[in-house]
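Renewal narrative, Specific Aim 1. Our central claim is that a sequence can be written position by position from structural information alone. The example that follows is taken directly from our test logs and has not been curated for this report. It begins with the structure tokens describing the chain, in the order in which they were read.
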């Protein structure tokens, strides 16, 4: 009857280093075969939903608050003066915030 031992074999430091180097070299060859260069260019061009497709600058015109507008002290939205509900110590509040 043959018995196999599950006990680890004892290697010298040199033999261990050679074995590790062999395993690393084999792993490097395996990993090199897994990378598909054609998929890299596809992945760079792929845009997820909601992602920005191009690095373009948005050009918007920022206008100062007009004479018939006010900035709500609660929501900080610029509103037309017809939406002014309350003014307290110089702070103005819109109908949506006070509603």
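The sequence written for that structure reads:
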């Amino acid at each position: 009857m043959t018995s196999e031992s599950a006990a680890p074999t004892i290697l010298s430091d040199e033999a261990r280093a050679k074995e590790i180097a062999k395993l690393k070299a084999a792993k490097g060859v395996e990993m090199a075969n897994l990378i598909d260069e054609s998929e890299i260019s596809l992945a760079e061009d792929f845009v997820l939903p909601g992602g920005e497709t191009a690095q373009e600058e948005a050009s918007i015109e920022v206008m100062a608050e007009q004479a018939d507008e006010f900035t709500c002290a609660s929501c900080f939205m610029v509103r037309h003066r017809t939406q002014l509900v309350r003014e307290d110590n110089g702070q103005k509040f819109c109908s949506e915030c006070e509603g």
